[in-house]
């Protein structure tokens, strides 16, 4: 069965960003687009009133779908518009059962850290396919001025936890980097020791080294495994210090893509994400790919 790329679309600015990214990815993968629009659930309005409203909404959705398909065609990509009634997240997850990747644009959180759209969160938690969520204001091929001193430019960053190479996010990150001519940075995050009752700087450094050594050993072993399947891919490993969420968000300021597994640093539970994953998704400044892991 030929896979496709599913993109959530409603004509808004954030969905236009998602469509632009999806078109470029479809060109790269040579896969068709499935452009999904949801008309929502039936309300409690009287049927005579709701019927007219639903008809108007469906007509507008058809207009938007046609416009999106034409935009894909102009980019050399085959697109199909899908209009479904129902909860937006549920519709997207259902239509993505045979997808290679799902693409959504994230609404801004207006300066309130740790918030993101409920649709993005639900799709990321329940999709059987990897989900790419684009931050507000991001456009393909465009990045704001990068902070000085940062060094993740031109790289796909994947966060690795104790699962190591068994984390399904790792091969997805490597494949994306290889297909797009990027480098891969495998990172692990260890907490700082500033909260510990240290008596000296020497003791502080000794404890920090004990924390960092096994983390470095883990990500180096992951890199070694990946090089067997991706011999031409440039891979580097880095141990970052600090709060995991902060470290990943900092990396996203210069990275091309941040990749995480749904059960990485804390993982997902139902519709709720662990604090690290939630913060990284909400505040990342580059596209984030969330790769599903097997449900228990």
Write the layout of secondary structure elements.
Layout: E1 4-8, H1 13-29, E2 33-38, H2 47-74, E3 79-84, H3 88-95, E4 99-105, H4 118-126, E5 131-134, E6 155-159, H5 169-179, E7 183-190, H6 201-229, E8 235-241, H7 244-252, E9 257-261, E10 268-269, E11 272-273, H8 275-283, E12 288-291
Parallel strand pairs: 1-2, 1-4, 2-3, 4-5, 6-7, 6-9, 7-8, 9-12
Antiparallel strand pairs: 5-12, 10-11
**Architecture of the largest domain in CATH?**
3-Layer(aba) Sandwich
Strands of the biggest beta sheet: in what spatial order?
Answer: 3-2-1-4-5-12-9-6-7-8
What is the overall silhouette? Answer: elongated
Pairing-aware structural class of the strands and helices?
A: alpha/beta
> What's the total helix number?
8
Number of domains: 2
The helix/strand series, from N terminus to C terminus, equals EHEHEHEHEEHEHEHEEEHE
**Which residues form runs of ≥5 with pLDDT under 50?**
108-116, 264-272
Determine the strand fraction and express it as a percent band: 15-25%
Number of E-type strands: 12
* CATH topology category name of the largest domain: Rossmann fold
How far apart are the termini? 27 Å
Rg (CA only): 21 Å
Biggest beta sheet attributes? 10 strands, mixed
Overall pLDDT confidence: 82
CATH superfamily of the largest domain: HUPs
CATH top-level class of the largest domain? Alpha Beta
Q: Roughly how much helix do the residues carry, as a percent range?
A: 40-55%
């Amino acid at each position: 069965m030929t896979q496709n790329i599913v993109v959530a679309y409603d004509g808004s600015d954030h969905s236009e960003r998602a469509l632009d990214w999806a078109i470029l990815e479809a060109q790269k993968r040579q896969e068709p687009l499935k452009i999904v629009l949801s008309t929502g659930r039936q309300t409690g309005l009287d049927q005579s009133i709701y019927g007219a409203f639903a008809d108007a909404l469906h007509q507008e959705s058809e207009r938007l779908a046609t416009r999106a398909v034409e935009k894909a065609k102009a980019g050399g990509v085959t697109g199909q518009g899908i209009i479904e009634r129902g909860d937006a997240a549920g519709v997207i997850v259902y239509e993505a059962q045979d997808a290679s990747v799902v693409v959504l644009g994230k609404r801004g959180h207006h300066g309130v850290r740790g918030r993101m759209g409920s649709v993005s969160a639900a799709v990321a938690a329940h999709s059987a396919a990897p989900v790419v969520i684009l931050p507000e204001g991001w456009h393909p091929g465009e990045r704001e001025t990068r902070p000085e001193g940062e060094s993740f430019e031109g790289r796909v960053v994947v966060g690795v936890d104790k699962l190591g190479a068994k984390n399904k996010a790792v091969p997805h990150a490597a494949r994306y980097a290889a297909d797009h001519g990027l480098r891969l940075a495998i990172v692990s995050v260890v907490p700082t020791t500033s909260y510990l009752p240290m008596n000296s700087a020497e003791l502080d450094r000794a404890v920090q080294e004990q924390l960092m050594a096994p983390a470095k050993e883990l990500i180096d072993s992951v890199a070694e495994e990946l090089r067997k399947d991706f011999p031409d891919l440039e891979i580097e490993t880095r141990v970052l210090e600090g709060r995991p969420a902060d470290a990943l968000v900092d990396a996203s300021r210069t990275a091309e893509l941040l990749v995480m597994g749904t059960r990485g640093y804390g993982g997902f539970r139902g519709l709720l994400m662990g604090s690290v994953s939630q913060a990284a998704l909400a505040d990342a400044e580059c596209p984030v790919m969330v790769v599903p892991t097997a449900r228990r």
